Amino acid sequence: MEGQKVYGYMRVSSKEQNEDRQRIALLEVGVPGKGIYMDKQSGKDFERPQYKRLLRRLDSNSVLFVKSIDRLGRNYADLNEQWRIITKEKGADIVVIDMPILDTRREKNLMGTFISDIVLALLSYVAENERVNIRQRQAEGIAAAKARGVKFGRPAVLLPENFHEVHSQWRGKQMTLKQAARACNLAESTFFDKAREYEGS
Asked: What are the residue boundaries of the structural domains of the chain, listed by start?
């Protein structure tokens, strides 16, 4: 890596907590801390601010490290397109730490490029397929839960027994909203919403 500019890219979705593992892996292979770029968002597309900044810096004297291919992206078509931009247009090298065969520095001949491109296509297809499967499993799980009678969202607030009477006094201006809500042991906003529902029905 002598003479080359070395960069690392990390991505974590807001739900994931693997930021430290990615950073440690990048530092261990020699990526300087100031050369690490990180986005906190989904891998479904490449509309990511830090990734775009990194892409502008890459050239034929650069090598980019990522811990695993899904940290770069999960969308099959977009991932292949970005790989092409980085390796062909920018002329930079990519090293996927968890998948040593995806190291474009290894064999610069046609066969090396061919193998790398095939492996990338296969892996990115698997990553996209897994993303689709997860979405499908979630949808099926929600449908099955609904069929079992599981209710989603916040539980409905039941009307207190004195609601009708209090509502009538509030509408007759005998009570303020605050007093009415307190009398029903509800938040003001909840009382107001329930009053609108009650009047609408």
From this structure: 5-133, 163-200
| pLDDT for 111 | 58
| DSSP secondary structure letters along 25-57 | HHHHTT--GGGEEEEES-SSSS--HHHHHHHHH
Q: How far apart are CA 38 and CA 31, in angstroms?
A: 13
Say how far apart CA 86 and CA 187 lie, in whole Å: 55
Which residue stretches of the chain have pLDDT < 70? 1-2, 14-18, 43-45, 107-116, 123-124, 127, 152-157, 201
| 26 token code pair | 């990048």
Q: Which residues are catalytic?
A: 13
Other Cβ atoms closer than 10 A to 110: 8
pTM of this prediction exceeds 0.70: no
Rounded CA gap, 185 and 163, in Å? 10
6, 69, 80, 129 from 122: Cα distances, Å: 26, 11, 10, 10
The fold adopted by the segment(s) 5-133 is: Rossmann fold (3.40.50)
